[in-house]
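Honest question from a wet-lab person: if I give you the sequences of every part of a complex, can you actually get the arrangement of the whole thing, not just the pieces? Trying it with mine:
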Amino acid sequence: MKVTIDGIPVEVEPGTSILNAARQIGGDIVPPAMCYYSKLEGSGGKCRTCLVKVTKGSEKDPRPMPKLVASCRTGVMDGMEVQNITSPEVIEARKGVVEMLLINHPLDCPVCDQAGECHLQDLGFEHGAAKTRYEFDRRTFEKIDIGDKIQLHMTRCILCYRCVFTADQITNTRLHGILNRGDHSEISTYISKSVDNDFSGNVIDVCPVGALTDKTFRFKNRVWFTKPVDAHRDCDKCCGKVTLWYKGEDVIRVTGRKDVYGEVEEFICNTCRFDKKKTADWVIEGPRKISHKSVISSNHYEFTPLPVVKTNPVLLEANKEQFERDTRL
Amino acid sequence: MGRKLLLEHINVPGINTFDVYRQKGGYASVEKALKTMTPEAIVEEVKKSGLRGRGGAGFPTGMKWSFLAKPEGVERYLVCNADESEPGTFKDRYLMTYIPHLLIEGMIVASFALGAKTSYIYVRGEMMPQIRILERAIAEAKAKGFLGKNILGSGYDLELYVQPGGGAYICGEETALLESLEGKRGNPRIKPPFPAIAGLYGCPTVVNNVESIAAVVPIINDGGDEYAKIGIGRSTGTKLISAGGNVKKPGVYEIDLGLPVEEFLYSDEYCGGIANGKRLKAVVAGGSSVPILPANLFMKTINNEPRLMSYESLADGGFVSGTMMGSGGFIAYDEDQCIVRNTWNFTRFYHHESCGQCSPCREGTGWMEKVLHRLEHGHGKMSDMDLLVDVSKKIEGNTICPLGDAAAWPVASAIRHFRDEFEWHVTNGAEATTRNFGLAHYADPLTVAATA
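Yes, you can. This is the full assembly:
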């Protein structure tokens, strides 16, 4: 199927979502995604940050879609034309979503362990306003230990449901979910139970913000001062392929290997994540390639690739107004 | 005098029992459908009738039925949406309470048309009396051979169940209803896939409102063409309107679509005019989620034509000068009512009922409620109105389900048409807090109880 996103055509398999089609092109036309996670079935569609405008439904039915659609949950049709960063309507809606998300997400990046790896931080930087119009009390929660190695700080949670899907799909026990409705919703464990199984640590990796953090790493360092190294070990529970985060000679954190969109390539077990913190436990493969556009890449090895759209002269001309506006943003 | 297709026998004593209902010609459509018609012919009749979904969206019912996927070896389901919870709407409850067999008759015919062997009536959890009434009526119908195996010797089997809902407004949204019916938290699903392709338990499913299903009975009895003769344009047939607010005679009325709103509001046959000799200030025509209209725009369209009780006429002028038929929850406000308080009240409801899945609705409804709360309590700012309009715009159309729109439209329309009143609340904050809008005409129940 052929789909055109922001003027760039791409051939994709039937059943591909608009978001994944955009990811095949890459660059800055890829819509942001806070709740979608390709490894988790049923995820996506909730945060509404990936809204795009479908200006042509398909070759068969060229009518535009009446509303903006969630690109992570909308399949492409042959001949579909989509606008992401070239649609002022999309940018405006996304700004609105960011403003809503930041109502109940504190800007405590200076003390948050997720800073530098936070999708909301990037999104807020790209689309947020300098000042909020919200003048009321924010919701706050006490920190909760959900397991001996994981801390839940609900105050930062944006209710993306990723951790719920993770607990539901990759572990054999469903011990946490959503309580209450609307903006009273909260992630919680069942009564006083903790999330306690071999793969529970993955909820930390999938959290797009700093709501779920690794207690073995909390407050030990800023992530951009660490040195990420790919490593592996023989593990009888998981693939054993991880990224080790070094501070000097010490491994201070172990995570799954994340791709350019912040998604882990494969989920890892708690033994690898929490218990193997010595270099001797691992076979080192080499420095991790950091290509994330966030601050985390600033002290590392490779530059972020140049955006696709912004290097394409035809598109630059066609979308001149959009880019001027984008620059103003 | 309007025709009564659904409420014709509503006042017959004992009409809620099978025997009386049958004596009055009940279940004739089941006999006709199962003995003389094919499922395709029934769908065709419903298409011919032009019946539009009576739950609020107004989508053509026959077309919805024809979208149902029919893969071999896969169950199909019909689910009746009786989770009536739109503030101002109480027609389905009325129908289920007084003439439950009409719904069951419609369910049998519709299930046969759709090839469903198991059907559900999903009733709002708080409606326990209606749940009991329907359960008893189903048992009666089953005992008389109209449900169960081999109905009327036709070879068609149907089991019909009543399922109490979770008591959440969002469970009236069709995909949240299906989630709830499956025993899960009532969160809306992301569409597509639509229920017609993957609905209950992943099988093709049609979800129809109580009134839509009940309307299938006269359509089959009299024919789709006869039904289509009633009404005006693409608004065919009769419609139940639940009239409330400051009208003299609140209640459920069956009207021919196309009736002038003036006649509905002021004639003795229907609402009888505004109570206590007051003047009409505003109307919400289709339940709390539709835009509110001031009296002048409600009575006449922007082209100075009389406004009619029809889908098209009520929507004439878009949201700038029009509104929607919605679920038929008609609320009239007299000149003493406070639009700010009313809007705050509606928003409070939507904030409470938002499921919390998607960010704009989860956060936006709460934000709007807080701003309206301060406006109503005399602490508002002049910039609040623009803020509310902007927040409602950010919610509208950007959410998973229509609850976001339902929360945004009343706010945007109230500010569009009654901005003066909002501004008055800002400039006269102290007075605004002491006004007793809307309660002046009603005796305090505690005082009444004490003096009785």
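Two things worth pointing out. Helices of chain A lie at 18-25, 88-101, 119-127, 162-169, 202-206, 270-275, 313-318, 320-328. The interface with chain B takes residues 44-49, 51, 67-68, 70, 73-75, 93, 96-97, 99-101, 103-104, 133-134, 136, 158-159, 161, 177-178, 180-185 of chain A (CB under 8 Å).
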